[in-house]
Q: What sequence folds into this?
């Protein structure tokens, strides 16, 4: 610290000498504020948008306590209201606000700047990030503002809600445009601004194509689905099926904010509050799945999961220290967080094949998906052979392999209802008689945009945790 002060003192003295001997030479350059640049590069916001999106969709106060909890990957031993279907309403409000205000709005601005600069590569990245944010919102809430979102500058302060089907149509339009931009060969992405791929446009093309493929599989039980279009995406050769192409953000072995957000649990000494869910532990033990030793820490040589719920877990024998905690690898400061994993996409390809949506051998895709998950968890390819019996085993592995990818686990479970035997939490919130399938609308929206919220509720059903989203027909 002393050296820093000395350096700044020397700079100040030197600057004073220059000023007194060369009064107004280079005056404009000397007085340029580096914190307020007059020229903004079109991808200057990219890293901020990427980091904001990944941190929010992996926020442990909502994605961890709700999405990963309700699918019973994890379970809490204390402060476990969400375990019993009382999610943090403030966190739900933040999820909505951050995705609209700090991801979508900034990505729209980045897209505008890129269009002005004729940088199609950056336009493509901006559209992918917008599409992903809208998909997270509609998958978790249902009907949402899209066509009138973030248009206060046009006098629209109370945006109308689009139906989930229309939102998905908009998502596909964005992704088609993103793919076209990224295929054009025009423009570039500054490597230092891109936390996902370091400016590699070919990988962004795979990312865009894969996000569209996954989104199409999500609505594959609806009239909007087009199997021929799905096959075209497969034929493009641009799907993420290798661990080398996965979309994730790496973190650093230092404190927040540059560390994995779950590392905050370690910094605050709260590991004992977070444990493994009994259904996942029991299933992996029965299958002899080696990933369990990565997912979880043992308790005196045994892996023990907690059933969901309980008003007072400690009095039921499930207090801190009695069950397996989340594995150290997943709470490490430098643990990566995923947007898209090769494992999930290979397993979705297996599903698409077994349902005759696409060509290809379902069993091969299935085995590739399990292998990709093993590699992702630092295990050797082929070190585990999951039983393959068709669709049910594919859906089961989608549940297992998306560990700590809360919203993807929740979405895949809602879509398949597999595992079908996930039990209701003990001591649930009164009136919640099944595992939640959506978030209720934020209090701010109910207060400030009531008429449009009411219209959305009239269209899709009660503003309740158990109202199903449009594509969830099981």
A:
């Amino acid at each position: 610290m002393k050296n820093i002060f000395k350096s700044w003192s020397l700079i100040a003295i030197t600057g004073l000498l220059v000023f007194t001997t060369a009064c107004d030479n280079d005056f404009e350059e000397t007085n340029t504020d580096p914190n307020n640049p007059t020229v903004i590069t079109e991808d200057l916001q990219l890293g901020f948008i990427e980091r904001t999106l990944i941190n929010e969709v992996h926020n442990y106060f909502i994605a961890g306590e709700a999405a990963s909890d309700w699918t019973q990957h994890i379970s809490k031993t204390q402060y476990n209201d969400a375990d019993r279907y009382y999610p943090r309403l403030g966190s739900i409000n933040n999820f909505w606000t951050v995705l609209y205000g700090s991801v979508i709005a900034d990505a729209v601005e980045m897209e505008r700047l890129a269009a002005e600069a004729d940088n199609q590569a950056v336009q493509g990245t901006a559209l992918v990030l917008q599409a992903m944010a809208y998909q997270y919102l509609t998958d978790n809430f249902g009907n949402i503002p899209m066509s009138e979102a973030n248009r206060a500058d046009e006098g629209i302060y109370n945006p109308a809600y689009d139906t989930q089907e229309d939102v998905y149509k908009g998502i596909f339009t964005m992704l088609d445009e993103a793919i076209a931009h990224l295929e054009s060969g025009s423009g570039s992405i500054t490597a230092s601004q891109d936390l996902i791929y370091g400016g590699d446009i070919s990988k962004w093309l795979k990312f865009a194509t894969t996000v569209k493929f996954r989104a199409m599989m999500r609505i594959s039980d609806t009239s909007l689905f087009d199997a021929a279009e799905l096959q075209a995406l497969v034929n493009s050769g641009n799907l993420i099926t290798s661990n080398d192409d996965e979309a994730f953000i790496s973190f650093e072995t230092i404190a927040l904010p540059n560390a994995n957000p779950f590392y905050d649990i370690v910094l605050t000494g709260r590991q004992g509050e977070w444990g493994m869910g009994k259904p996942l532990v029991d299933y992996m033990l029965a299958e002899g799945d080696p990933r369990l030793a990565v997912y979880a820490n043992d308790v005196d040589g045994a892996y023990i999961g907690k059933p969901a719920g309980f008003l007072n877990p400690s009095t039921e024998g499930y207090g801190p220290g009695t069950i397996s905690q989340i594995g150290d690898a997943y709470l490490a400061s430098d643990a990566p967080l995923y947007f898209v994993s090769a494992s999930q996409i290979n397993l979705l390809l297996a599903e698409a094949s077994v349902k005759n949506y696409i060509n290809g051998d379902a069993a091969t895709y299935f085995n590739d998906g399990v292998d990709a998950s093993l590699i992702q968890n630092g295990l050797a390819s082929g070190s585990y052979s999951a039983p393959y019996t068709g669709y049910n085993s594919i859906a089961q592995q989608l549940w297992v392999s998306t560990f700590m990818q809360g919203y993807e686990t929740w979405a895949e479970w809602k879509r398949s209802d597999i595992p079908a035997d996930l039990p209701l939490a003990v001591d649930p919130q009164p009136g919640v008689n099944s595992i939640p399938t959506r978030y209720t609308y934020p209090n701010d929206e109910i207060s400030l945009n009531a008429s449009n919220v009411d219209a959305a509720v009239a269209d899709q059903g009660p503003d309740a945790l158990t109202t199903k989203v449009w594509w969830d027909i099981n």
